[in-house]
Amino acid sequence: VKMARPARRHSAGGLLSPRRRTRYASNRGELADNVDIVIASSLIFFCVVGAAVSAPPTLYKAMAIDLKLDVVELQLNLPSMLMSSWLLAMACTGLIMDYLGVAPCVRLGALVVALASSAYPFARSAMALLALHAVLGASMALVGVFAQVMVMNVWFAHKRGVAIALVLAFFGVANAIWPPVLAHVASASSWRHAMALVCAAQWLVSLPLANHLVRRELGGSRVL
């Protein structure tokens, strides 16, 4: 007589061996234990993308009218300067991370973005805008996509892909939220006030969270 097979159970404590059950529990707990890291990196990325990627294109027309510049030249030159400086700075980012550590590198990049954002509302010429975009591009190498992926690599061993996906999703969130908000502020007041809002986000949100990452890296339990 054939014995009926027991129904397969899909819970964490089902038919898994003790070793696999322990690993399953650690996989589930890793994201919960480091949820503050994911939130901090996501909001830093949100603020930085707003300053370097979302805000300037939204305000090109207002800047061109205010500074008496050709809007087409702004649309061509400023993104080119941003990407060029970003690519050049990427060559040094790995060395800086090896020397300072991942979280201190993120904090340095967040500080540079905050300083550049503070100077942006006071720009009076095309050359000033180009210089600020060069600084923003270089700082993006320290605090942008590559840096946030490295932060997730430090803190996650099993849920690394999920953590990276959650953080990088905020690129889309930033591009969905920043442009309409900044366009409204610029139309109601001026593009300088809109950039001042971006600047406030760097000092009040991005930098404190970058400091939190540094404290966690110095005192927390990391994968690497």
- Please tell me what the overall shape is: globular
Compute the gyration radius: what is it?
Answer: 22 Å
Distance between the termini: 55 Å
Strand count, sense and closure of the main sheet? none
CATH class membership: Mainly Alpha
Stated plainly, the CATH topology is called Growth Hormone, Chain: A
CATH homologous superfamily placement: MFS general substrate transporter like domains
How many separate helices? 8
Q: How many structural units, i.e. domains?
A: 1
Secondary structure blueprint with pairings:
Layout lengths: L17 H16 L1 H33 L3 H30 L1 H18 L6 H18 L1 H11 L4 H29 L2 H29 L5
Helix pairs in contact: 2-3, 2-5, 2-6, 2-7, 2-8, 3-4, 3-5, 4-5, 4-6, 4-8, 5-6, 6-7, 7-8
Describe it for me?
The termini are far apart. This protein has 8 helices and no strands. The protein is mainly α. It has a single domain (40-219), classed as Growth Hormone, Chain: A. Helix 2 packs antiparallel against helix 5 and helix 2 runs antiparallel to helix 6. It has helices spanning 18-33, 35-67, 71-100, 102-119, 126-143, 145-155, 160-188, 191-219.
